[in-house]
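Journal club prep — side note

Before the paper discussion, L.F. wants everyone to see what a predicted structure for a comparable chain looks like in token form. Sequence:
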Amino acid sequence: QLQLVESGGGLVQPGGSLRLSCTASGFSLDYYSIGWFRQAPGKEREGVSCISPRGGITNYTGSVKGRFTISKDNAKNMVYLQMNSLKPEDTGVYYCAGRRGWSSRWSDYNSWGQGTQVAVSS
């Protein structure tokens, strides 16, 4: 079973940057797409970005386009989310999730990690 662990969250000022990491074990990421999701206080979880098994296809939700970049290192079984120009509305718990094969549909992702907290505040 694919197991995922997120790290890299923290407190950052508006306009700052963070890089989140998602470490996978159990299966090679050569066969898995990975998605990043977030859940703000009092809101439903939403999809942020996803990347295909070989990393050739990426997808972003509109509010993060141009600010966030997802990348994948299959040799290390790692996925990253580089977050720049952070805004207070980016605050939330960030999760990674996987699915075998490619899908840009957020509901297709499962095998959730435990999440990492991101807080954007001055």
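L.F.'s comment for the group: Strands lie at 3-7, 10-12, 18-25, 32-39, 46-51, 58-60, 68-73, 78-83, 92-100, 116-120. Keep this in mind when we get to the figures.
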